[in-house]
Amino acid sequence: MYLLYLDDAGSAANSQEEYFVLAGIAVFETQTNWLSQELDRIAENIDPANPRGVEFHASEIFSRRSPPWKNMEREDAQGVIKAVLKVLARSHNNVRAFACAVHKGSYPGSDPVELAFEDLCSRFNIYLGRLRAAGDIQQGLLILDKSTYETTLQKLARDFQTRGTQWGAVIRNIVDTPFFVDSHASRLIQIADHVAYSVFRRYNARDTQYFDIFAAKFDEADGIIHGLAHKQTVEPMCMCPACLSRRISQSARISNPDNNL
Predict the structure, then answer these.
(1) What digits encode the pLDDT tens for the residues 77-87?
(2) Which of 76, 174, 194, 251 has the highest CB neighbour count under 10 A?
(3) How many domains does the chain have?
(4) Pick from 61, 8, 39, 49: which is nearest to 186 by CA?
């Protein structure tokens, strides 16, 4: 089974932030132990007496307002964030990143959390369908950090499995409703938190130093970065990897219509 761990970054209600991000990693079940152990090794260098007590929460590490990050130099704290992301970057080939960055101003009256969740359910479902077509018949399960959106997202997931998404596709490759877990107890959710924070920094603050570490892990097929979605209506010529890969693919199809036959 493939497990999609998701966490969010940014606040849907904060008018000072342009973006809301939902993001994480898709992992085959046998890879979870290796990823957890790698983060445990990083934690041992931070608090040898109680490594399991160290929770990797990217925004808290970055701000350095609470222990054990409070007494760190800025460069050292940022180095911890990068170390977590490097674990993802060097992970097995079947570990894939997924993210949806929603420009809130582009969708007035819409809930960015619901927009991002629907987008990622669809992308994960398509990814699993592509694997199935290649002979890998595993199904998927969603695992998210506990939040106030738990009831809403569970209902949405059930709707996607029965009535389909706005694109008309019924979600058939994802089983059950999403599971919600305490991030402190899950190293995989902590990695998802770092992915979400990095994507948020990439779009909201134009800071790519974290994003670039693992950008190659986004699900990609036929030259299109399917694992990363930039939902916006204000930059038609956006040069981010998600938008650029789609424009290049579209231009190629227009230039070579015979290839689409």
Answers:
(1) 999 999 999 99
(2) 194
(3) 1
(4) 39
pLDDT exceeds cutoff 90 at 158: no
**pLDDT at residue 251 in the model:** 77
The answer to the question of residue 46 being in a domain is yes
**Distance (Å) of CA 84 to CA 46, 50, 77, 176:** 13, 18, 11, 30
**Rounded distance between C-alpha atoms, residue 200 and residue 207, angstroms:** 9
Q: What is the predicted pLDDT for the residue at 21?
A: 97
Q: Which domain holds residue 71?
A: 2-113+140-147+180-260
- Name the strand (E) or helix (H) holding 117: helix 112-133
Residue 164 lies in a domain: no
Residue type, 3: L
- For residue 171, is it within any domain? no
DSSP, residue by residue, 160-223: HHHT--TTS----SB-SSPEEE-GGG-HHHHHHHHHHHHHHHHHHS---TTHHHHGGGB-EETT
Residue 158 inside a domain? The answer is no
pLDDT digits over 244-256, tens only?
999 998 877 666 6
Tens digits of residue pLDDT in 211-236: 999 999 999 998 999 999 999 999 99
